[in-house]
């Protein structure tokens, strides 16, 4: 997996659901070796999301989807995502969105500073 890649697979790490298919934006491995992702949502929960347009990301079903930039940072161990394959890779964050997403997260008022630094750092490595 590479930073900026977008995957879709069934997960149980969603509040209120036992299992559900969810889009995941891969950020990278953290210091403890866990794989860090941000969910991509069909709604802009808490007005903290970063908008992605269906015209740029045609695999999203709605006109707009939103990278969750609030408090929901999800991580998986390698064994938890061992089932994820190249078939689950649906796309990649466009270069034009990388810097804007980094700025958006950098200004977050709800995400913890530890995650802000980690995510912004990983996104800046793409440039």
Shape: globular
CATH architecture: Roll
SSE sequence, one letter per element? EEEEEEEHH
Task: Give the structural class.
Answer: alpha+beta
Largest sheet: 7 strands, antiparallel
Radius of gyration: 14 Å
The fold-level CATH name is SH3 type barrels
Instruction: Figure out the total of helices.
Output: 2
How much helix, percentage-wise, in residues?
A: 10-25%
Overview of the structural elements:
The model has no long low-confidence stretch (mean pLDDT 93). This protein has one domain (5-124): SH3 type barrels. Strands 1, 2, 3, 4, 5, 6 and 7 form a 7-stranded antiparallel sheet that branches. It has 127 residues and is an alpha+beta fold. The protein contains 2 helices and 7 strands. 19% of the residues lie in helices and 31% in strands. It has helices at 95-106, 113-124; strands at 5-11, 20-29, 35-41, 50-53, 64-67, 73-76, 89-92. The two termini are 17 Å apart.
